[in-house]
Amino acid sequence: MAAKRQIFISGRGKAAPYAALQKPDYGNDQFPQPRGEYKVNLIMSKEDAAQDIKRITKIYDESYKEFVADHKANPPKVQPGKRPIEVRQGDLPFFDNGDGTVTFKFKCYASFVDKKSGETREITVRVADSKGKTMQVVPNISGGSILKVRYSVFPYKWNATVGASVKLQLEGAMLIELVEFGGGDDDWGDEVEDGGYVADETSQREEWEQEDQGHAGEDIPDADDDF
Asked: Which end of the chain is more exposed for a tag (fewer CB within 10 A), N or C?
């Protein structure tokens, strides 16, 4: 399915523990070459999450219908003695916590391989302060920090291990209130939060580069991405 990339801005929420926005989380990913991940689970009230739930669910349902229609029109060949992969819809990338809040799962890889050159290129997730100014020096954002997230939605088809669903691709974050571990940019449009976190002038980038080959949006999820 050829999905048109759209950028959305989430409602205001609280970062869950183990956010990785200052630098990628490599976990146990060592072989053959670690890619790392930027990630954050954002906890929002149902009221603040309503618009995100609506738009994500719409893409989730519409993409599944398209996948099923394509599957029926172009049924895959099944090798003798093997069972066909089950046509099914998977879990949504958010869940109800049962306490009036909803948790959304955002992430993106920290590098990608340039198909033309074969070189590995780093990806940097841009973090803005509450006035929408991109910070060159990102603080160690931890669980409990108040954020908004820029994200895109990528549908993926079912496979042998997961059902068809959508991935919430992390494109950037706005830091409104900082909880640090251990202790207005154009892309944000009119999104400004009064009284929130404001970066020092020395850590603000006044202009983004005209071209940024390390933008998070270049990372397209594979069909078998596990999340």
From this structure: N
Structural domains counted in the chain:
1
What pTM was estimated for this model as a whole?
Answer: 0.77
Task: Look at residue 205 and give its three-state secondary structure.
Answer: strand
Domain-located, residue 29: yes
Q: How far apart are CA 205 and CA 122, in angstroms?
A: 19
Length of the chain: 227
**CB neighbours of residue 199 within 10 Å:** 21
Sign of the torsion angle spanned by Cα atoms 91, 43, 13, 202 = negative
Q: In this structure, are residues 134 and 175 in contact, taking their beta carbons and an 8 Å threshold?
A: no
Q: Please indicate, yes or no, if residue 185 is contained in any of the structural domains.
A: yes
Q: Is residue 65 pLDDT above 60, yes or no?
A: yes
> pLDDT value at position 207?
40
How many CB atoms neighbour CB 189 within 10 A?
A: 11
Evaluate whether 3 touches 66 at the Cβ level (below 8 Å): no
Q: CA 2, CA 4: separation in Å to the nearest integer? A: 7
CATH number at residue 141: 2.40.50.140
How do 101-109 and 37-45 pair as beta strands? antiparallel
**Is-contact 119 111, C-beta < 8 A?**
no
Alpha-carbon separation of residue 30 from 27, 36, 54, 78, 93 (angstroms): 8, 9, 37, 34, 26
Calpha distance 94→56 (Å, rounded): 9
Domain span at 31? 8-72+86-218
98 within a domain of the structure (yes/no): yes
- The average confidence (pLDDT) of the chain is 83
